[in-house]
Amino acid sequence: MNLRNLLLFGFVALLIVLEGTTTAFGLFGGSWNTALGILNMGLISAILALGVNMQWGYAGLFNVGVVGFVALGGLAPVLVSTQPVTEVWTTQGAGRLILALLIGLAVIALAIVLYGRLRGRNRTLAILAVLIGGFFLFRAVFDPAVDVVESFQPATHSNLGGLGLPVLLAWPVGALFAAGAAWVIGKTALGLRSDYLAIATLGIGEIIIAVMKNEDWLARGVKNVISIPRPVPYEVDLQRDPGFIDLAASFGSDPVTASTVAVKLLYAGLFVVILLALIWASEKALNSPWGRMMRAIRDNETAAEAMGKDVTRRHLQIFILGSAVCGLAGAMIVTLDSQLTPGTYNPLRFTFLIWVMVIVGGSGNNWGSVLGGFLIWFLWIKVEPWGHALMGLITSGMAEGALKSHLQDSAAHMRLLTMGLVLLLVLRFSPRGLIPER
Amino acid sequence: MDFLNAIVALLNFVVIPATSYGAQLALGALGVTLIYGILRFSNFAHGDTMAFGTAMVILVTWAFQSVGIHFGPLPTALLALPFGIAITAALVLATDKAVYRFYRRQKAAPVILVIVSMGVMFIMNGVTRFIIGVGEIRFDDGGRFIVNANEFKKATGLAEGLAFRSTQGLTILTAIIVVAALFWFLNKTRTGKSMRAYSDNEDLALLSGINPERVVAVTWIIAAGLAVIAGTLYGLDKSFKAFNYFQLLLPIFASAIVGGLGSPLGAIAGGFLIAFTEVGFTYAWKKVATYVLPDALAPDGLAQLLSTDYKFAVSFAILVIVLLFKPTGLFKGKAV
Amino acid sequence: MSSSRNPYKDDRGNKDRSITKSGGGELEYPTKGGKARPAPGGPFLAAENMTGGYGAADILHDCTLTVEKGQIAVIVGPNGAGKSTAMKAVFGMLNLRGGHVKLDGEDITALTPQDRVAKGMGFVPQVNNVFPSMSVEENLEMGAFIRKDDFRATMEQVYDLFPILKDKRRQPAGELSGGQRQQVAVGRALMTKPKLLMLDEPTAGVSPIVMDELFDRIIEVARTGISILMVEQNARQALEIADRGYVLVQGANKYTDTGEALLADPEVRRTFLGG
Ligand SMILES: Nc1ncnc2c1ncn2[C@@H]1O[C@H](COP(=O)(O)OP(=O)(O)OP(=O)(O)O)[C@@H](O)[C@H]1O
Ligand SMILES: [Mg+2]
User: Fold this and answer.
1) CA distances from A91 to A100, A103, A104 (A)
2) Tally of domains in chain A
3) Mean per-residue pLDDT over chain A, rounded
């Protein structure tokens, strides 16, 4: 941490404070509520960027399916912390559904075993037979069970529900979900004779989202799951709590505003703890023999291989770790929102934007990723209102008409444009990012 | 009779739609594969190039329509196509000059170019939305059908109707012409051969006096042309929506990779393979099955293997399976 | 490979085949390049006092190579002596810190490799010297890329020189045997009708019989008035056909004489020709 980096972080902090305190030149919102909102998602963005940085920065792995891991992590709060829908846990419903999933797993496992054991045409035929037969068996068990589950109170449920456990437990579980998916992807894509990770992650990302949108029994699909339990108190409870009202009064604030700010601060506290723990662990790992080996592999794979390092294994390891961090962040997002809305998992927002954060911050540098996470998230949120303001200024002299309204409506798309520009400018003029790797 | 009906249903719901979708994918994948062959990276902005180009075609189409220019029974968009291609090619060339060329001169690692193309993707995405919005746009104003289902039923006396939409016919015809022209260009012309040479061995191409900037410029122009044609055909066939074009990136990449990145022939084969499996897996086979199977065996469900929402999963599964058995794709990815 | 110096070249060890194609060229692009200046007199090719290398360290030290019109000059030397580097320097693929290259009465030191091709130089690199996915005939066509006239006669001459290529002319060069591929490479370089042909180990990896044949062909080419500058591992045979021989050691001229004289020199025989 040298002075320059401290200044950079100070600058980001200043932006958030300004957002909270002033409406100067119409650039900022002047509301602590939005400022803390940006801060909270900034914290999560920083964690996401850390995860991607592990993969790209430490090991040169190109993950373009971040959105899938985020979504998978987001599943965890639903499955862990919502109440079980006991009515569907019958032998014809959930029981059968789980049996079907086990059958599916068994079929895939069998196919993999056959792939390893057999050779040539026999292998192809045997695997085809197993997969086709297994698919129909799976559907035969699965479809009726899904009907049972999904037909139960479609307006409010139609899913299995969760385990009713504390939501904080969902965070490590989200990381585990993502890690599991990463293991499967890494095993396949990194195990192929040449490396196909980019297309593999791109594909799996889309598939995970398709599953989450369509399998209502899992988490209600696009019908969304709302009011997921929170790890922090509810605003209404705070507003009723006399102690809190007094506290708010002592700050000269009304209870309603104070309660929203307090809740956001509590979230921020939780996120800061996680973020710091992750940075500490990453830095520690990076400077350990393990981290040195990762960098040795990255900088000269052939030499590392010659020294007997199992490169594929190391790559798999780091891919799983990075994805787990993304899954964790995904679970945190859903917890922060108290709802799971699969329709919002857009690759531009959850894959490519994270890449912008990592590149802008500085590939390979954990602090850089954190900085990039905050800065880019701040821009992502603020460019839209700024775009509106700018368009308002540009079109103020124009006559009312189609062009004027078109321009004003289109201002919202400025943010994509800006992100692209920022990425290109940084890549061109500061290719190592704002905080370069040492 | 039942057998004929089954064939007609198969044609109607599987073969024709998959062929036109396959042609669209193949055209898109050809662009990706050409850029990969010559510039050595997968262009993440390709989907958005398609979207931008199609948006241009739509704007020109609207302009034509507003002054009363039409193209007989064919969609006006076909008249607008050359303009769309010209504008898109100009934009892409300008992008190359402003963005990519610097990295080429630096001999930058290809993976850096991939990241650069992400930036370009964002910008093009924003520009397209800025110009034409995010909504769904239909711009097909041509005759609807080459073969109409009802007329077909009347003419043949079959229970199944065969509908062959003109956009589908147009897609297939255009794709054949474009692919033939491209292969002729790559294999028979001096410039085309110099592109293949450059893709094969950059240094030797330079030593032979081939001008790399020219090769790259021609490649961008062709890729832009392919993108606009693919995008316009897709839009005529279905509809235009910027986000859908961005999402086409996956099946297009999958097609190019399945076929063998860098191989034009592979891109085409890959496009059709992906399209046919996608449609085949997501089509409800009940109708066809009822015609060919004895009543006792007729399925009671829809006989649909997967819901259409999982079409990406199908393209992806095909990709993985092909790569497991043929790690370099169907046509060993090599030459341009 | 990653490089700490140039961040644009740092790929972090990424080898993802689904997004990048490996094996790009190393040659700098011909963006800047000066003009040739007249420099009458001297040998047909005179590359004198060349000093330079790839990065900070010099590989070549005051190295001088000359070839007379229609003659064969051969460079021999141990592995890593800088023979290929010297060839690249003559061809303008290396930034020289000192020295100059003159061809046929002109100083061409400032020219790009492309411009040197136009001036009548042909170069067959040691490795990657064909277009593997293109047919033999297309390889030859690409050799003639800068020619605006009809090159069919030249192609016939190449086919006469290497008859096997005529039989294989529809076959991709990458599917040929090593010896055949070298013939394609030489043929490609001949397509511009060069006045100076530069060959970097044309016989690498070919059997002795094919090697003798290739040498015969090279002599044939020289008889047509083309000057030849050639690097060879098979020092003895090469010096036998050489009008002039250079023994290069650590980037500097160690011995320079006629081929015959070098073969007769006991010192050269002992250290470089194995007795
Ligand atoms: N592209 C390059 N970049 C940096 N150094 C290089 C490069 N090519 C060669 N060298 C170095 O220059 C020196 C001379 O190499 P060169 O290829 O000229 O040797 P050579 O005499 O042709 O050897 P050989 O007989 O094995 O072909 C070697 O030390 C080599 O490591
Ligand atoms: Mg050499």
Assistant:
1) 12, 16, 18
2) 1
3) 91
Cβ-proximal residues to C213 (8 Å cutoff; 6+ apart), any chain:
none
Which domains, ranges and CATH numbers included, belong to chain C?
32-120+204-275 (3.40.50.300), 126-193 (no CATH)
| Residue C125 sits at the chain B interface (C-beta within 8 Å) | yes
* Residue in C6, C84, C229 to alter for ligand 1 test, most ligand atoms within 8 A of Cβ: C84
**Is residue A25 a contact partner of residue A331, using CB atoms and an 8 Å limit?**
no
CATH topology (fold) of B2-247: ABC transporter involved in vitamin B12 uptake, BtuC (1.10.3470)
Supply the pTM of this predicted model: 0.93
Per DSSP bridges, beta strands C72-76 and C96-103 are unpaired
- pLDDT tens for A367-397 read 999 999 999 999 999 998 888 888 888 888 8
ipTM rounded to 2 decimals: 0.93
> What are the sequence ranges of the domains in chain B?
2-247
- Chain C residues close to B210, C-beta within 8 Å: 142, 145
Alpha helices by DSSP H, A54-169:
59, 66-81, 94-117, 120-150
Query: Around B125, how many Cα atoms within 13 Å sit in the side-chain half-sphere?
Result: 29
Within 10 A of A290 (CB to CB), how many other CB atoms are there? Answer: 14
Largest CA distance in chain A: 79
The number of the ligand nearest the C-alpha atom of C88 reads 1
For the Cβ of C84 lying below 6 angstroms from any atom of ligand 1, the answer is yes
In a domain, A189, yes or no: yes
Residue of A nearest to B116 (CA): A424
State the pLDDT at residue A324: 98
| Residues contacting B199, CB < 8 A, separation 6+ | B37, B38, B262, B335, B336
Question: Both tokens of residue C97?
Answer: 């810190």
Intra-chain end-to-end CA distance of chain B, in Å: 48
C-alpha to C-alpha distance for A122 and A118, rounded to whole angstroms: 7
Instruction: Closest CB to A432: pick one of C7, C15, C16.
Output: C7
Q: Residue A336 falls within a domain, yes or no?
A: yes
For residues B29-35, give the mean pLDDT: 97
Residue of C nearest to A61 (CA): C14
CA distance B159 to chain A (A): 30
Long-range contacts of A176-179 (CB under 8 A, 24+ apart): A176/A76, A176/A324, A176/A327, A177/A72, A177/A73, A177/A75, A177/A76, A177/A327, A178/A69, A178/A72, A178/A73, A178/A323, A178/A324, A178/A326, A178/A327, A178/A328, A178/A330, A179/A320, A179/A321, A179/A323, A179/A324, A179/A327
Q: Are C225 and C69 in contact (CB under 8 A)?
A: yes
- What confidence score (pLDDT) does residue B336 get? 39
Most B CBs within 10 A among A427, A429, A430, A432, hence the mutation to make, goes to A427
Contacts of C11 in chain A (CB under 8 A): 60
User: Which pLDDT score is estimated for A156?
Assistant: 85
Measured in angstroms, how far is the CA atom of residue C59 from the centroid of ligand 1? 8
